[in-house]
Amino acid sequence: MSTLMTRGRSPVDPFSGWRGLDAGLSRLFEGFPSEIADKVFSPAVDFREEKDHYVLEADLPGLKKEDIELSVVDNVLTIKGNRSGEEWKQNGGYRSIERSFGSFQRSFGIPGGVDQSKAEASYTDGVLRVTLPKSESAKPRQIAVTTK
Fold it and tell me: Which residue has the higher pLDDT, 46 or 35?
């Protein structure tokens, strides 16, 4: 262990805070089955606000549109799906699996509200794009200033 000496004080370990963090993370994941951790899939998502609508884009490679479920309830957009993994048989030799799979669900609160009846979704080349028009009450309005 490296320590730094300071004049007139006890030795200081500059890494003591990191060691505590490392120990805490180790405790957090104790008993978490590694085979489950290897299969967790959580898609990357971009969410942005435009003038009249919100746009969500999610990377869902390897899914069919039938594998994706979308819903909007109380201004919360939820995406659910399942990406199946391949069953690999070990026949000796080297094997490396980096792609994740499994069921996922992600939810996003939408500030100000949306017009659910005009929501649209498309799925092209593994990217889901959801367009959610703002409700009239959520759109910015100019307020005229008058004099009296």
Answer: 46
